[in-house]
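Backbone description:
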Amino acid sequence: MYSKIEMSYEKYMVIYWANLSRFNNLMIILNISMFFLSGLVSRGYYYTFYSIGCCFLVAILAIIPLSFINRLWFYLVNLLMEFVGIYFFTASIIYWVRNGAQASV
């Protein structure tokens, strides 16, 4: 079964990496626009940094021409890092909503 999945991955690898890259860029833009521009980060909230750090790591690993970029396990590791970034982003949104979503003056 793993060989079927790997063959399918090799066939559509360009599409998977392109979609991950686009989603990653969207996550970075959302993190910056929602939390850095609102002033939430200046009040000592650090989950946003963790989320954007995971997104930057995925972006760097997608850009660097490594010899194993066409391996399924490498894509899954990057996808897992993206999900960790999504977790921290979601936690940031929940924290932001619970605290009134007010920008600092």
Remarks:
- The chain has a mean pLDDT of 86.
- Residues 21-98 form one domain.
- The longest helix spans residues 72-98.
- The chain has four helices and no strands.
